[in-house]
Each structure stands twice: as structure tokens, then as C-alpha cells.
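Figure 3 (text version): C-alpha cells given as input.
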């Protein structure tokens, strides 16, 4: 680590969050943890491992590419691709033992147009080699009940698509699901209407003699708030990473933020009244003040809109961001924190770093394994203050999800061991 900016991924926290969600489910329910978008920025393989250790049965990703990357990282758990896959994508998914989502009849038609593999040849009773069997891709049928994003839009179309899937020798119908748009809202009326439409489609399928397989609808918000909407499986993302989907309701179980971002001071300067800070000179020192520079910026995922709005923590105390956030650096006002000096570690979000984390010590520890140096701080029950991603998200006009996903691959992730 030559630049003193790094993120800590508290994998044991992900495990604990997943176990906490698990404790809300009846024992026969499945628990899918969404690890799309590189595990909401935490690292997909690390998040998957922690989630499975916490009791997840399934993993969710956005694309076949993300699923294949997990298979290549030796993840053997069931994986569902939640987004749309091309025909060749579905074929690759079948080969990697990954389940895909289908929401249009045309997607099934496209499969018939491409060459398709057979499984290894089946021995005949005479001991000779017989013909191979067609490889089948497992699919979950998507029903659009009010998100207007993917899936069939009526019960009748759900039956048509399900019949088409069942008739295809390349596919196996393994599940049926929908996605809720407003399960995190203060009123659950919209979600309730979606659930009712979902139930209509399910009964139409059953009436048509179709076994829907694994039925699921709930994201984190619905999983936490509505046990009666759990069906056979819930799909949890944000809660696994330690944040509530919204602050209009309290999580019934404690959630521990898993992502923490730190950067160490590279310079402290004394400014005179009238001096300006950063591109565009958007901040002018009203009096003599001390300004510290941190080597982290919007290219690392710390949004520029946080300029002159957010603050960072030094040992639990706030230092406001002054001037525009640059691509690779930003400046903070440490006038009220006279002890802050070059090498001190600032917390951009997450648990406030202890005083012992200086650039020099972190860099020395990184020569071996930084997680061994920083790990004990996270495992200890401590009262360190936390700068929540919810707070930054409010200041940036977004949600915690977007800030997590925005953490750039440039920032080294220090993953704490399970
Ligand atoms: C990402 C995703 C989830 C998880 O949503 P959270 O709000 O993070 O729990 C669930 N279902 C689908 C279809 C998704 O794409």
C-alpha cells in the first residue's frame, strides 16, 4: 500500500448480518444474498464466502459474467442471475450450473437458434455409449407486478411463458419471482398491491398444472418487515452489508456496517483569511485556519457533490470537507483539531479509526498483512463513533447502495478473515 487510502471489508460483520436475517426466517426458507456489482463494492467472492458462512443458501448476481467469476473463485452454491441474459449467456450459465431469469417468450425462442451442448453421453444398458442428453439451463420466471422493469405483465402471460419454458428441452423451470418497488416506503400499499398481483399469477400457474418451483419476492426491506411475504426464499442485499434499506422503519435485528473507508493526511497547511481551497475556489478561508489534505477523491468513489458538505472523522471528531473534492484528493478543515498532523488516519465512512493508525504504521503492517493489524479493532467491542453511509448518502442526494458500489477498484480492500 503505497498510497495511504484503503477500505476495510468486515467479512465477519457480513456473516453476522446474514445470520441475523436468517434468524427471522422459518427454518425451511431459502436465503439468497445479492453479491452483484462486486458484492455491493465489498468484493463479490469475499461477500459470497461471508454470506454462505452466515447461512445464505443462494447467491444473486446481475449477469452471467458475474456468476462465472464466482464459479471461477470456487463458489459452488446455487447462483441466480437476476438480470436478463442473452441466448449465449444462458448457454454459458447452463454449462457453469448457474440459474438465469427469463421474462419474455422471445428469450426462449432465441435459445432454439443457437447450437446447444449435450451432457456427457449416457451409457446404455448394454454398456455401450448412448446419445448424450440435452443440457438444461435452470430458469426462474420473472413476473412484473409493478416495477415495470423485467418480466411478464399478466397472469395469462405468466402461464404462456411457463408453458413455453416447460416445453423447451433446453430449460428447466426452477422458480418464479417478482421484485418490489416500494417495500422500503413508509406505506406498504404499493408493495401490497404487487404481492396481490404476484399471488394471482401464482394461482393461475398452479391452476394450469405448472409447478412454479422456488417462489420469491422479498428484498431486504420486505424480508425485514413482512414475514408473510417470505414465500420460499428471500433475496437480501443491503441488509447483508449492514445498512437498512430505508430509515422509515427500524430493522428488527442489529445490522453492522461492513464497509469502511480510510485515508491518511499527506499535508497540513495554515491558510490566511481570504485564501481559497481547491478547483473553482469554492471555499474561502474566513480567518486563519488549518487545512489537511487527504489522498482520496471522486475517482475513488467519494462523490464530488460532497464538496463543502460532508465531513470526515479524526478519532471520532469531525473535520468538514472544504473546497471541491478533486479526482484523487480532498481537503478538510482541521482548525478545531490542532493535534491532527501528517500521517493521521481519517475516516471517510464507517467506524472511526483509532489514533494508532498512522500512515507509517499502516504502511509497515501492509508489508505483511494489513488485516492482521486492523482486524482486532473491528473484532473488539468498542465504542468508536461511526460515520454512516446513510448520512453521506443524504448529503449526496442518493442512497447508501450507490456509495458502496461507487468505491473504485483502485482502493485496496482489506478483507478481515472470517
Ligand atoms: C439487488 C436485488 C435484490 C436485493 O435488494 P436489497 O434492497 O439490496 O435487499 C433483490 N432482488 C433483486 C431482483 C435485486 O436485483
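Below: residues designed for each position.
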Amino acid at each position: 500500500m503505497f498510497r495511504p487510502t484503503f477500505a476495510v471489508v468486515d467479512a465477519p460483520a457480513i456473516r453476522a448480518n446474514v445470520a441475523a436475517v436468517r434468524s427471522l426466517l422459518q427454518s425451511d426458507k431459502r436465503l439468497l444474498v445479492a453479491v452483484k456489482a462486486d458484492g455491493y463494492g465489498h468484493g463479490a467472492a469475499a461477500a459470497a464466502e461471508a454470506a454462505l458462512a452466515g447461512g445464505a443458501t443462494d447467491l444473486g448476481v446481475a449477469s452471467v459474467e458475474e456468476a462465472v467469476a464466482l464459479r471461477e473463485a470456487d463458489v459452488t452454491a446455487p447462483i441466480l442471475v437476476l438480470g436478463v441474459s442473452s441466448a449465449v449467456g444462458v448457454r454459458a450459465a447452463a454449462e457453469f450450473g448457474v440459474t438465469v431469469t427469463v421474462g419474455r417468450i422471445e428469450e426462449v425462442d432465441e435459445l432454439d437458434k443457437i447450437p446447444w451442448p449435450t451432457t456427457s453421453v449416457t451409457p446404455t444398458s448394454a454398456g455401450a455409449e448412448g446419445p448424450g442428453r440435452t443440457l438444461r439451463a435452470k430458469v426462474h420466471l420473472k413476473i412484473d407486478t409493478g416495477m415495470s422493469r423485467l418480466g411478464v405483465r399478466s397472469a395469462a402471460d405468466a402461464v404462456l411463458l411457463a408453458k413455453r419454458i416447460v416445453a423447451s428441452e433446453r430449460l428447466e423451470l426452477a422458480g418464479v419471482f417478482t421484485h418490489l418497488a416500494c417495500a422500503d416506503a413508509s406505506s406498504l400499499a404499493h408493495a401490497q398491491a404487487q404481492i396481490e398481483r404476484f399471488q394471482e399469477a401464482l394461482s393461475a400457474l398452479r391452476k394450469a398444472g405448472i409447478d412454479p418451483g422456488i417462489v420469491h419476492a422479498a428484498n431486504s426491506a420486505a424480508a425485514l418487515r413482512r414475514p408473510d411475504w417470505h414465500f420460499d426464499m428471500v433475496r437480501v442485499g443491503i441488509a447483508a452489508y449492514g445498512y437498512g434499506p430505508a430509515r422509515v422503519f427500524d430493522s428488527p435485528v442489529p445490522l453492522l456496517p461492513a464497509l469502511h473507508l480510510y485515508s491518511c493526511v499527506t499535508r497540513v497547511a495554515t491558510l490566511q483569511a481570504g485564501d481559497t481551497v481547491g478547483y473553482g475556489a469554492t471555499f474561502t478561508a474566513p480567518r486563519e485556519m488549518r487545512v489537511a489534505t487527504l489522498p482520496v477523491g471522486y475517482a475513488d468513489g467519494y462523490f464530488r457533490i460532497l464538496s463543502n458538505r460532508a465531513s470526515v472523522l479524526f478519532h471520532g471528531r469531525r473535520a468538514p470537507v472544504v473546497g471541491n473534492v478533486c479526482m484523487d484528493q480532498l481537503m478538510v478543515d482541521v482548525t478545531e483539531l490542532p493535534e491532527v498532523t501528517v500521517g493521521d488516519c481519517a475516516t471517510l465512512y464507517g467506524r472511526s479509526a483509532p489514533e494508532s493508525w498512522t500512515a507509517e504504521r499502516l504502511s509497515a503492517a501492509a508489508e505483511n498483512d494489513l488485516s492482521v493489524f486492523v482486524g482486532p479493532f473491528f473484532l473488539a467491542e468498542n465504542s468508536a463513533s461511526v460515520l454512516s453511509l446513510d448520512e453521506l448518502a443524504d448529503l449526496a442526494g442518493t442512497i447508501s447502495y450507490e456509495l458502496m458500489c461507487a468505491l473504485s477498484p483502485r482502493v485496496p480492500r482489506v478483507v478481515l478473515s472470517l
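Residues 189-207 form the longest helix (19 residues).
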